[in-house]
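Run Non-canonical purine NTP pyrophosphatase through structure prediction, thanks.
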Amino acid sequence: MIKRILIGTTNPAKKQRFMEILNDYDCEIVTLDDLNITDEPEELGNTPIENAKIKAEFYSKFCDNVICQDSGLYFADMDEDDPRQPGLYIKRVGNEVLSYEGMITYYSNMAKNFGGKALVYYKNGTAVFSDNCFKEFMADDKTNKARGFYLLDHQICEPIPGWPLDSISQDIENHDKETENLLREYDIKFRKFIIDSFKLKKIEK
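Sure, done. The structure for Non-canonical purine NTP pyrophosphatase is below.
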């Protein structure tokens, strides 16, 4: 029996990423829109993985197989407990929830404080619910920092739906061999985690 997998996010970029991984496997992919789900969980976790599990548990009411992700953004030149760190609250400043345009303005101004370019990295926590149990995936700090990039004080492209900060982001070029291997291993492990968690088989073409 083909598994129906719910991608539990409203973020179009994250939906696309998970679809790209799952497309070649024996499953039916559905989104919150497909199932007319408008309710959202209250994310009270202290880490990306805790929030991802909260989301997966919430959406498991609607589907037997769910994948969810939560992210935190960190400036490499600040302590992680620095009150200026966005952390889990990437879209929030104080009591204000930023629009995509507001995020671009706010973070480009932060980059300006670092001389126009700030090294940052994401911590992504991914949770899967399948076969009535939860599985989780989160890279270690070394890998997260290796996946870092620069935030700039100006836009270099049009905003991408779901990833507005990409418009002020610049990849790090010319990684050393160790970092390249680390990034390659991360991608392989992440894909394997998803496929193995759902026990999927590749579609023969």
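The helical segments are 12-22, 48-59, 100-112, 141-146, 177-198.
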